[in-house]
Amino acid sequence: MYSRRELARLALASLPASQLLAKPNSVIHGVILGAQSYSFRDRSLDEALKAMVDIGLSCCELWQGHVEPAKMKREELRNWRTTVSLDEFKKVRAKFKQAGIRLYAYNYSFRDDFSDPEIARGFEMAKALGVKCLTASSNVSTAKRVNPFAVKARMLVGMHNHSNIMPNEFARPEDFAEAMSGQSNYIAVNLDIGHFVAAGFDPVDYIEKHHDRIVTIHLKDRKKNQGANLPFGEGETPIRECLQLLKTWKWKIPAVIEYEYKGADTVEEVRKSYEYCKKMLG
């Protein structure tokens, strides 16, 4: 008979104890595979955790939308970020621990309209979550403002790229270089290989040259020339080659699935993406 305390340790709100006892393990041939929780944006964090355990994923980059309140006006959200109790983030951390999923990074997207207290709070949130780094769909110019906060917190910030080449947005190798130039080594890269290909660049070459500045890799498959997001294996993104680089050189850079194409069922599509990645590492 379990005591109440023992049951509390076993129970995660939406997960049966039988699943919790069988911890997931998605380290394949030394390569850390996982998911960006944005992949499960159609469901709550508890439901996303249940899905990741069911699929067998043991590493996660947490999307801020799974933590922050939805449908807040800008000033309301700013106020929430700067006043919310950090105990709320510690509760999230406990959920991941109970599920047996490594919470690696928190995706908190610094933008030019962030106040200094808002930037500082992101690092406090990250520490409460127990993560090693932040990732951010940020502005290039914002990196200079974020840098001193990153130095003070001694925490890496991986800047995330998209495919549209626009002023002050991350898409090109030059954008990463500008953001990191003259800064501390705490400003780093969150390389989305699908977007990189769609923008006309080679992620294999970039990883080979800059792996020491990459904190995490986003896995998705896209066609070149701003092509659409597609199921893994149907686009032109060298997913296999990127994963094999991590395997061959034993670079401990988490490679996380970011599901964005339109499929019938989120969980099954992420599962298929994970199975594809395992096959590419075989």
Key phrases:
globular; eight-stranded parallel β-barrel; 282 residues; two-stranded antiparallel ribbon; TIM Barrel; 12 helices; disordered N terminus; 43% helix; alpha/beta; single chain
Tell me the layout of helices and strands.
Elements: H1 4-10, H2 17-21, E1 27-28, E2 31-36, H3 45-55, E3 59-63, H4 74-83, H5 87-99, E4 102-107, H6 116-129, E5 133-136, H7 142-153, E6 156-160, H8 173-180, E7 187-192, H9 193-198, H10 203-210, E8 214-219, E9 221-222, E10 229-230, H11 239-249, E11 255-257, H12 266-280
Parallel strand pairs: 2-3, 2-11, 3-4, 4-5, 5-6, 6-7, 7-8, 8-11
Antiparallel strand pairs: 1-2, 9-10
Helix pairs in contact: 5-6, 6-7
Structure write-up:
The chain has helices at 4-10, 17-21, 45-55, 74-83, 87-99, 116-129, 142-153, 173-180, 193-198, 203-210, 239-249, 266-280, and strands spanning 27-28, 31-36, 59-63, 102-107, 133-136, 156-160, 187-192, 214-219, 221-222, 229-230, 255-257. By secondary structure, the protein is α/β, with parallel strands linked by helices. It has a single domain (24-280), classed as Divalent-metal-dependent TIM barrel enzymes (TIM Barrel). The strands form two sheets. Strands 2-3-4-5-6-7-8-11 form an eight-stranded parallel β-barrel, surrounded by seven helices. The chain is globular.
Number of helices: 12
What's the number of domains? 1
Question: What is the overall shape?
Answer: globular
**Rounded mean pLDDT score:** 94
Element order: H for helix, E for strand = HHEEHEHHEHEHEHEHHEEEHEH
Architecture (CATH level 2) name: Alpha-Beta Barrel
CATH topology assignment? TIM Barrel
Radius of gyration: 18 Å
Strand content: 15-25%
> Count the strands?
11
Rounded to the nearest angstrom, the distance between the terminal CA atoms is 43 Å
Low-confidence stretches: 1-14
